[in-house]
């Protein structure tokens, strides 16, 4: 065994003995501390003839000298690491979303909708989005493609999202009802979902909101407000532009894009309605601290 290993073993045994005797500090002379930091001493460790500093020679424990020598902790307390923030990891959230999606796609709670639907429209976008748009129900185009807001109203919604500086991939878009409401044979267009249908499907939307944890929800149209809040015959013309609270999440009600499209047949080509919707979106952007240019603030004035 080398001299260095013997000395190191002796030093360790001495320190352990001191610890067992209740000592918390060991007296080290200033010159010894300087020697320990000296490159000369580190170089000498390779020499065969090496003497152990007197401060740690194995011997009967002695009291620290009266002189004010630096007191070095024998076994310094280990500082705990700073606390880390915990959050839902993207991978975990995606896995939970996949499980929820599988349940929604297999849902058969409304037999009359199951027999007429072509697909179940789950939702689209980022499961970690800070902004979520909620509509009422899929239309014929959405039912055919299995994605929300892909028809004419969906194209307008996409323009609104883009004008806000976002994309369909950075927000999340869903509906209260995941299946297209059935219509009588020979009828065209889309019917409004019934309260019982929305109540049956609402738990799926609640799970989506809980997983996404959006900072803001935009309710598109009166039916979306009715489905979210259980309000009968919501008056969107009065509610739009006024913040609501859905279980702690701020909700901005605004007109449905299809309403804006219908307003384009009016004398002002829907400019006033577009401005109202845009003012609602400006409030959303301000709540999310998104950048707003002067040009954006002046749209449709």
Describe the structure.
It is a single chain. A hairpin with a 2-residue loop joins strand 7 (about 245) and strand 8 (about 250-255). The protein has helices spanning about 5-20, 30-35, 40-45, 90-105, 110-115, 140-145, 150-165, 195-210, 220-230, 235-240, 255-265, 270-285, 295, and strands at about 25, 70-75, 125, 130-135, 170-175, 215-220, 245, 250-255. The chain contains 13 helices and eight strands. Residues about 35-90 have low confidence and may be disordered. It folds into two domains: about 5-75, no CATH class; about 90-295, Uracil-DNA glycosylase-like domain (Uracil-DNA Glycosylase, subunit E). It has about 300 residues and is an alpha/beta fold. The strands form two sheets. It has a six-stranded mixed beta sheet with strand order 3-5-4-6-8-7, sandwiched between helices. Strands 1-2 form a two-stranded antiparallel ribbon. It is elongated, with a radius of gyration of 35 Å.
């Amino acid at each position: 065994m080398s001299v260095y290993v013997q000395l190191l073993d002796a030093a360790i045994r001495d320190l352990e003995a001191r610890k067992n005797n209740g000592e918390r500090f060991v007296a080290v002379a200033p010159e010894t501390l300087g020697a320990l930091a000296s490159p000369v001493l580190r170089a000498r460790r390779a020499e065969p003839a090496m003497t152990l500093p007197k401060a740690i020679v194995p011997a009967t424990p002695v009291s620290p000298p009266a002189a004010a020598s630096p007191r070095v902790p024998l076994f310094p307390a280990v500082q705990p690491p700073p606390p880390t923030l915990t959050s839902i990891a993207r991978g975990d959230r995606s896995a939970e979303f996949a499980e929820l999606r599988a349940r929604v796609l297999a849902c058969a709670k409304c037999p009359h909708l199951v027999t007429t639907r072509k697909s179940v429209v789950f939702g689209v976008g980022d499961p970690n989005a800070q902004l979520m748009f909620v509509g009422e129900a899929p239309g014929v185009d959405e039912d055919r493609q299995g994605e929300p807001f892909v028809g004419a109203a969906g194209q307008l919604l996409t323009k609104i999202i883009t004008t806000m500086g976002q994309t369909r991939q950075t927000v999340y878009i869903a509906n209260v009802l995941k299946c297209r409401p059935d219509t009588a044979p020979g009828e065209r267009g889309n019917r409004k979902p019934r309260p019982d249908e929305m109540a049956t499907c609402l738990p799926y939307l609640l799970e989506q909101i809980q997983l996404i944890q959006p900072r803001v929800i935009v309710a598109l149209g009166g039916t979306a407000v009715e489905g979210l809040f259980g309000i009968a015959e919501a008056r969107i013309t009065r509610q739009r532009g006024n913040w609501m609270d859905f279980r702690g999440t701020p909700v901005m009600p605004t007109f449905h894009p299809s309403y804006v499209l219908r307003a384009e047949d009016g004398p002002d080509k829907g400019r006033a309605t577009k401005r109202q919707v845009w003012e609602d979106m400006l409030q959303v952007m301000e709540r999310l601290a998104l950048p707003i240019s002067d040009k954006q603030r002046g749209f449709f004035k």
